[in-house]
TrEMBL record:
The gene is FRMD8. GO terms for cellular component: plasma membrane. This is FERM domain-containing protein 8. Gene3D superfamilies: 1.20.80.10, Phosphatidylinositol 3-kinase Catalytic Subunit, Chain A, domain 1, Pleckstrin-homology domain (PH domain)/Phosphotyrosine-binding domain (PTB). It comes from Hydra vulgaris. GO terms for biological process: negative regulation of canonical Wnt signaling pathway. Residues 109-472 form the FERM domain. Residues 1-24 are annotated as: Disordered.
């Protein structure tokens, strides 16, 4: 049975945070007002759903059982909050105190926080369900021995297969977990049944607001290792789509890191035949197991790249891999989903196309959802943007991007449940550029790549973008 005083304390604390005018103005992708209302599905509703649709539950359970953070299994038993018996006693020197005199203090709990490669850390939270993301991040920084000058490199994320949210230090993960169903319905594209059964986990990873120039100023091995593991995850899972030749080069580096120097007595033809997915993204080799068995070309090229870097140290390889990723325009992006209209009246083509949008400190990257392929990178100083509210309750908000192409203004309309999240993040990044007075970056964009997804102004109702930010 829930402790009512503890629940009230959670709500009181959240209300206090809402009114605190000293809080930072970074992007709040979840909307703070959602954090204090518990409207998630009850256990009874979940049980009822499982009885009605056992096949779905079996499939979903199997997926969760095999869920990987960079191909490492997650122990679901560790994901639930384990509340210890007894009442929390305030320790000497602690700054925490109940919001109302006479209330019982929260019970301590255990939580598990994952790294990108799947390693997990079990944390004991003395403040229990009142523990903030910032306090959890501090505990992870201490455990990993990350230096003070790199603390801002990382953040706590709440991640599932349907939604990824970077938490502010003041956010309370327990409250957001209670609100997870509503967040999925508001910001993801999963079905109701999937939303009920979805299980997010806490992940310690790179902040999406970090600039790679700041990264390069810190040479600490622990920090480099953390950033490398995340970059490796994004390359192998095609979140960072790169040319196949580059993927093979990076695969050779990964083989050197994992296998050590090349040894012809060990690394014979066929050695990597069943390990290709460990070193290459799927698009770099066939996903058909039968073809993989007979097609040795991918393995042959991986061997060649492996031999080229065999004499390098592991640390040098990690830095080389990371520096390559930093050169990508979409490095460090937060990713969103959207739908765009196609300027094509061909009957056999759908008038809409699903895309993925990546946003970082430098601009927006548009990707094809059906393929692991970058359409174009749009730096902030080449475009303007605006948020269009949905026209009816069944519609979606739209993010409009405007740019000049061949002396004509073009617009792209991206319909998305995450449009407001994208709008907030862009605004935060632009403020960052203005604060640091970042100069205009010369570009030579090939806007012809956008010919089928953009519209000239005479084809759409004209409107004035509320926050244009072309840098003159």
């Amino acid at each position: 049975m829930k402790n009512s005083s503890e629940e009230n304390e959670l709500l009181n604390l959240n209300a206090k945070q809402e009114s605190d005018h000293l809080l930072d103005n970074d992007i709040d992708v979840t909307s703070d007002r959602l954090a204090g209302v518990d409207v998630s599905k009850s256990d009874e509703e979940k049980d009822s759903l499982l009885q009605k649709n056992p096949a779905h539950f079996t499939k979903h359970s199997q997926h969760l059982k095999n869920t990987l953070i960079n191909k490492a299994k997650i122990n679901r038993a560790n994901l639930s909050l384990k509340i210890e018996s007894g009442i929390y006693r305030q320790s000497a020197g602690s700054s925490f105190s109940p919001s109302t005199p006479g209330q019982s203090t929260p019970k301590p709990i255990h939580v598990v926080v994952f790294l990108k490669e799947g390693t997990d850390y079990k944390l004991y939270l003395e403040k229990g369900k009142l523990t903030t993301a910032g306090e959890i991040k501090t505990m992870m920084i201490e455990k990993l021995k990350i230096p003070d000058n790199a603390k801002h490199f990382f953040a706590i994320w709440l991640i599932s297969q349907h939604l990824e949210l970077q938490l502010k230090d003041r956010h309370i993960p327990f409250l957001l977990r209670k609100q997870w169903h509503d967040l999925l319905i508001s910001f993801s594209y999963c079905e109701e049944q999937e939303a009920i059964l979805d299980e997010p986990v806490l992940v310690f990873q790179r902040s999406s607001f970090l600039n790679e120039k700041d990264e390069e100023k810190v040479s600490d091995d622990v920090v480099t290792k953390r950033l490398f593991e995340e970059a490796r995850h994004n390359i192998l899972n095609a979140r960072y789509p790169v040319p196949v030749s580059d993927a093979e080069m990076l695969g050779g580096i990964l083989a050197r890191i994992d296998e050590g120097p090349y040894d012809e007595s060990i690394h014979k033809p066929g050695y990597f035949k069943n390990l290709l997915s460990k070193y290459l993204p799927q698009y770099a080799f066939s996903t058909n197991k039968i073809i993989q068995y007979f097609n040795v070309s991918a393995e042959h090229r991986l061997f060649a790249r492996y031999k080229e870097v065999s004499d390098r140290s592991k640390e040098t390889c990690e830095r080389t891999f990371l520096n390559y990723c930093r050169s990508l325009p979409f490095y460090g992006c937060a990713f969103f989903k959207g739908i765009i209209s196609i300027d094509d009246k061909t009957l056999w083509r759908s008038p809409e196309k699903n895309i993925k949008i990546g946003i970082n400190r430098h601009g927006l990257s548009l990707f094809k959802s059906s393929k692991d392929e970058l359409i174009i990178f749009l730096p902030y100083d080449d475009i303007s943007w605006g948020l269009l509210a949905k026209e009816d309750e069944n519609g979606m908000d739209s993010l409009c991007l405007e740019f000049d192409c061949k002396k004509q203004t073009q617009q792209i309309f991206i319909e998305s449940k995450q449009a407001r999240m994208m709008d907030s993040m862009i605004e935060s990044c632009v403020k960052y550029m203005e604060k640091l007075k970042i100069p205009k970056t010369p570009t030579s964009l090939d806007y012809s790549k956008l010919s089928d997804i953009s519209f000239s102004l005479e084809k759409k109702t004209q409107f004035s973008l509320s926050r244009p930010f072309k840098i003159q």
